[in-house]
Write a structure and sequence with these properties.
Layout (H helix, E strand, L loop, with lengths): L1 H18 L10 H5 L7 E2 L16 H15 L18 E2 L4 H4 L19 E8 L5 E2 L11 E2 L8 E12 L5 E12 L11 E6 L6 H5 L3 H5 L18 E3 L6 E3 L11 H13 L16 H5 L10 H12 L3 E2 L7 H13 L9 E2 L12 E2 L7 E3 L17 E3 L9 H5 L13 H7 L5 H8 L3 H12 L2
Parallel strand pairs: 1-11
Antiparallel strand pairs: 2-5, 3-4, 3-8, 6-7, 9-10, 12-13, 14-15
The structure holds heme C (2 copies) and calcium ion (CA) (3 copies).
């Protein structure tokens, strides 16, 4: 069966080479183009499990770690003390009871649809500007709003979202309408928030492929940075540098919407602590800011609540989630759309290709991957700005979001909400929100004839 598929795509590959000699991405055959995660970290699955599969080749030991990590990722934690000591320690305050309640099927969340109902998948990062301009924790609330809690402990508050309609037209007069959200924190249990509070709304992104992104050498990422825009194309791209909690030195940031976390392990340990209320060897303290007495008095589920071995298994699990292959790569519309994103300059940020270097997991090493990100920060203009710095990222900078797998979100997560807070209701709206460094690309998109816009979207859905 696979043999046939390969033979067929080899034929398509010939066609591509012949027809796109003048294109920029002629080197790769369409068979290669389909392998978003490279030759050894791509899986062929277009079902609702497309984000949830392990690397095809793993040692038996890693495969067992993956299975155990998977069960911890899906586990609903309960409050301590409980008879099931392997799963207690929830909270005292939290956003969700499990990793998978936000990253459903290892995919992405959408923003809440009804007002003031605590819903999973969107969280608010909080800060106040420190004397050096760097973000500091908010007194009594910390660095994140936990809108849920265990019995007997108050949640910190609730999120209220309101929307304003923003109308526009394509150059061909076709109208569109975007929804601009604004965020308010209500039912505040620990007093008013300071006037200068900074709020960054973020939805849970998909988690597959992070092992590959971690295996891209720092130099390869920095090679694309152009902080002063020396080549004058209007696109800069800056690396974020953030505190590495293990080494206590600064390190290149790669994960999170602002590239605000250096490693998968720390992303996971941070999620355990901040989102679920579970301590690990990396973040050993219960997340109870000063003044939250009931939180501080609540029992814990051990110290730490998740041990080094379990954290490692969850980290192996997330690192070894494979990337789904592309579909319909050789189709006429897909190929036309691919040429268009290069011509409009989308690929200046959404880099089609990166290479990984060495890795302790052989399948992650030396892969040509197609994540459509440069892992760098870009100023996306006032429309997308959250006004909250994070590491070196300013209040209007975001990490180029990887686009691999984006066409399968609807199948896996049954929605098409995109961007850092899920405001875009489909891929087209996600593009229309791009401003700042991407303003030129967005203008060019708006000037396309309808059929070319459609091809571009067809290309995105093939990822
Ligand atoms: C309350 C919802 C929520 C829960 C629960 C949650 N996450 Fe996340 N996750 C997020 C959000 C939001 C981000 C983006 C964070 C940012 O921008 O700083 C994220 C980012 C990530 C990323 C990085 C993805 C990338 O491309 O940068 C990984 C990996 C991850 N989470 C793993 C986990 C694990 C493991 C758990 C359980 C221990 C977990 N998450 C629990 C919401 C959640
Ligand atoms: C200057 C760099 C830059 C350019 C140019 C650019 N993008 Fe983006 N793109 C980003 C960043 C940064 C984000 C994340 C923004 C956010 O979430 O607020 C993003 C997000 C997206 C998303 C949503 C991804 C997700 O996971 O939610 C899509 C789709 C997308 N871009 C497509 C395009 C297309 C198509 C073009 C060309 C018309 C383009 N981008 C041009 C930087 C860029
Ligand atoms: Ca706890
Ligand atoms: Ca908090
Ligand atoms: Ca430049």
């Amino acid at each position: 069966m696979r043999r046939w598929a390969l033979a067929l795509s080899a034929l398509i590959a010939c066609a591509v080479t012949v027809t796109s000699l003048s294109g920029r991405q002629t080197a790769a055959s369409s068979e290669d183009l389909a392998l978003s995660g490279g030759s050894s970290a791509t899986i062929f699955d277009t079902t609702a499990d497309a984000f949830a599969r392990s690397l095809p080749k793993l040692t038996n030991r890693r495969r067992r770690e993956f299975a155990v990590g998977n069960s911890f990722f899906n586990r609903n934690w309960v409050s301590a003390p409980a008879s099931t000591t392997g799963r207690d320690g929830l909270g005292p305050t939290l956003n969700a009871q499990s990793c998978s309640s936000c990253h459903f099927k290892d995919g992405r969340a959408q923003p809440p649809t009804r007002r003031r109902v605590p819903q999973l998948g969107l969280l608010l990062r909080l800060s106040v500007p420190g004397p050096d301009g760097k973000p500091r924790d908010v007194p009594h609330y910390g660095g994140q709003l936990q809108d849920r809690s265990i019995n007997g402990v108050p949640a910190e508050g609730a999120i209220r979202i309101t929307h304003r309609r923003v109308r526009g037209r394509y150059d061909d007069r076709t109208p569109y309408e975007l929804l601009r959200p604004s965020y308010e924190i209500v039912d505040r249990r620990f007093g008013p928030l300071p006037d200068d509070v900074q709020i960054s709304p973020r939805v849970a992104p998909a988690v597959f492929g992070v092992g590959l992104l971690e295996a891209v050498p720092e130099q390869a990422i920095l090679a694309h940075a152009d902080p002063q825009d020396r080549d004058g194309d209007g696109i800069s791209g800056r690396a974020n540098r953030v505190l590495d909690a293990r080494t206590t030195r600064t390190a290149l940031g790669r994960f999170g919407w602002k590239a605000n976390v250096p490693t998968v392990e720390q992303q996971n340990a941070g999620a355990f602590n901040g989102d679920i209320g579970i301590t690990t060897p990396i973040f050993t303290k219960q997340n109870c800011p000063e003044g939250q007495d009931a939180c501080r008095d609540a029992p814990d589920g051990g110290s730490p609540e998740v041990d080094a071995r379990t954290l490692e298994r969850v980290t192996t699990y997330t690192r070894t989630l494979a990337v789904p292959a592309r579909r319909k790569v050789g189709d006429h519309a897909t190929r036309a759309g691919e040429r268009t994103i290069a011509r409009l300059g989308c690929t200046a940020c959404h880099l089609p290709e990166l290479r990984t270097a060495g890795s302790d997991i052989p399948a992650l090493a030396d892969q040509t991957i197609r994540p459509y990100t440069d892992l760098l920060l870009h100023d996306m203009g006032p429309g997308l700005a959250d006004g909250r710095p994070d590491g070196l990222a300013t209040g209007s900078e975001w990490r180029t979001a990887p686009l691999w797998g984006i066409g399968l979100v609807q199948r896996v997560n049954r929605h098409t909400r995109f961007l850092h807070d899920g405001r875009a209701r489909d891929l087209e709206e996600a593009i229309l929100w791009h401003g700042g460094e991407a303003a030129g690309a967005t203008r060019a998109f708006g000037a396309l004839p309808r059929a070319e816009r459609a091809d571009l979207l067809t290309f995105l859905r093939s990822l």
